[in-house]
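Record type: monomer structure entry
Structure origin: computed from sequence
Chain ID: A
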Amino acid sequence: MKFILILSISLAGILVNAQTVQVIEGKTYTNNDDKWYGVNISRLAPSVLTFKNNSITSVNRYGYMLCAGDEIPSIYNNNLDAAVITGNRIKWNGSPEIGIIPHGIFTGYNINVKVKYNYLDRVPMAIIRKSNGMTDVS
C-alpha cells in the first residue's frame, strides 16, 4: 500500500510539471521581407527551450529576428521559464534609417532566461527584455 501511495504522488508531481522540450540547434534562417515576425518560438505550453548555434539573417524593418516572448501580459507569459539562448549569429542586412525597429533577440515576459555568447551584427534593437517589475541579478 505504501508503494502505491508513493508511486501515485511521484507520478502526480511529474504530470503537474510536464513541459515540452524545444531544442533548436544548428539551423539557418534567412528573410528578405520588410516586416517579419522572425523565428517565432511557441509559447502555448510550458517549455524547456534551448536555442543554440543558429544563424538568422534578415533585412526586416519591423518585427523580430528571434521572438521568444510576449509584448504584453497574457496567459502564455513565463512558458519559456529558464530558456537558454546561446551561441547564435544574428545579422541584420537592412538599410539604416530613422524608424527602423527590428528586435534581434526578444524575450518579453519570461523569467530566468539565459542569453549568452550570441553575436549580433548591425541589429538595430539587439536584445530586448520586457516584464512587469523585472530585476536583473547578474
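Annotation 1: Residues 19-128 form one domain.
Annotation 2: The radius of gyration is 18 Å.
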